[in-house]
Amino acid sequence: MKKVEELGMGKKIIILLSALLMLTISAGAVGKNTQEPIDIQSENNSHFKDIVIKKLNGKYEVVGKAKVRKGVFYYTVEDGHNVLVSEKKLDIHNLHWTSFKIKLSIPKEKLPKNGTLILFLYEKDRAGKLVHQHHVILDTFKETAL
């Protein structure tokens, strides 16, 4: 592994910007149990857009719009190591941009102490292969030292 002194200026800047981004994310209202819902806006793609996450005391409500080929898409929730919500199918009965709502509740004991909850949205092709995948960060947790 190279020491920081051996890295080029461009790589140092990328590392610094990455570290600042991670600090900014962890410094916000991330991973806190609050009494008021927190809205988080996700980036759009060609099959999922206008996604907003409301989180309140370990419960998550995800609303957005989907434009899926068969009027059906799937989702799971993972923490990078474990599947916390197994695959669910959501039938929106439409091939055009259609609003959807997903309500999630994950028991506190299943939440990671250090990690990120990720909602994976996707379709499946005829062979069952995942296509048009889109991930949304639901929450980030950072264990605090006592």
**Which strand order does the major sheet show?**
1-2-3-6
Uncertain regions spanning at least 5 consecutive residues? 1-5, 16-39
Shape: elongated
State the end-to-end distance: 32 Å
Q: List the secondary-structure elements in sequence, H or E.
A: HEEEEEEEE
Helical region count? 1
Quickly describe the structure.
The chain is mostly beta strands and 146 residues long. 13% of the residues lie in helices and 46% in strands.
Observed structural traits:
four-stranded antiparallel beta sheet, Immunoglobulin-like, mainly beta, single chain, 146 residues, 8 strands, disordered N terminus
Reconstruct the topology from this structure.
Elements: H1 9-27, E1 38-41, E2 48-56, E3 59-66, E4 72-78, E5 83-91, E6 98-105, E7 115-124, E8 130-141
Antiparallel strand pairs: 1-2, 2-3, 3-6, 4-5, 4-7, 7-8
